[in-house]
């Protein structure tokens, strides 16, 4: 709505300090984002050209308000009047955004190493969990992904990584529409991001 766009514009101006673009360092002013273990991946996703729908690889150095709206559109809630086709497209857009957060080398696959990196980042705040345990969790999850996506593998088969089609299979039945949201858009001095 025009009211939502106006609210986003005020937040954009606050983040950019009244400049025409936002740079990565502007996200440093979001207190709760500072404590998020995957902060770097979240900020990276805002500048990932794939998420900006520019159909290219790499990162933008800065984003303007239109780019900001594009990114924020991934987080909007579902609308009650959406038909099944619109809901499916909406869901795929959200999952593509998440997929890009994991696929850090932009090759169209989430490799075991990329997945390990994310799991290690997510669990980094737990002082009772050693790095080797985090790797074991990532390895187990990758094996589960392979069994869901490929089925029974032979002893000489190697699972190259999770493609976007695999990613869609893995998220089937999980309500991503209500789980993927951003709360740092309020205008209060202390902002939130989950």
From TrEMBL:
It holds the Pfam family EF-hand_1. One of its GO terms (biological process) is cell differentiation. The keyword Metal-binding applies. Residues 90-125 form the EF-hand domain. SUPFAM superfamilies: EF-hand. Keywords: Calcium, Cell membrane, Cell projection, Cytoplasm, Differentiation, Lipoprotein, Membrane, Metal-binding, Myristate, Nucleus, Protein kinase inhibitor. One of its GO terms (molecular function) is protein kinase inhibitor activity. GO terms for cellular component: cytoplasm; lamellipodium; nucleus; ruffle membrane. SMART domains: EFh. It is found in: Cell projection, Lamellipodium; Cell projection, Ruffle membrane; Cytoplasm; Membrane. It is a lipid-anchor. InterPro entries: CHP3, EF-hand-dom_pair, EF_Hand_1_Ca_BS, EF_hand_dom. Belongs to the calcineurin regulatory subunit family. CHP subfamily. This is Calcineurin B homologous protein 3. The gene is Tesc.
């Amino acid at each position: 709505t025009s009211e939502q766009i106006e609210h986003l514009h005020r937040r954009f101006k606050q983040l950019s300090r009244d400049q025409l673009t936002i740079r990565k360092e502007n996200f440093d002013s979001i207190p709760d984002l500072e404590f998020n273990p995957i902060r770097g991946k979240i900020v990276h996703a805002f500048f990932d050209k794939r998420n900006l729908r520019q159909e290219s690889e790499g990162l933008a150095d800065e984003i303007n308000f239109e780019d900001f709206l594009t990114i924020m559109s991934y987080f909007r809630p579902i609308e009650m009047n959406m038909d099944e086709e619109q809901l499916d497209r909406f869901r795929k857009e959200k999952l593509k955004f998440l997929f890009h957060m994991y696929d850090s080398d932009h090759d169209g696959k989430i490799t075991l190493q990329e997945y390990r990196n994310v799991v290690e980042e997510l669990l980094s705040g737990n002082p009772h969990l050693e790095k080797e345990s985090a790797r074991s969790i990532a390895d187990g999850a990758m094996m589960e992904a392979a069994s869901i996506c490929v089925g029974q593998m032979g002893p000489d088969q190697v699972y190259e990584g999770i493609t976007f089609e695999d990613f869609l299979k893995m998220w089937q039945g999980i309500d991503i529409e209500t789980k993927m949201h951003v709360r740092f858009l309020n205008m209060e001095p202390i902002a939130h991001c989950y």
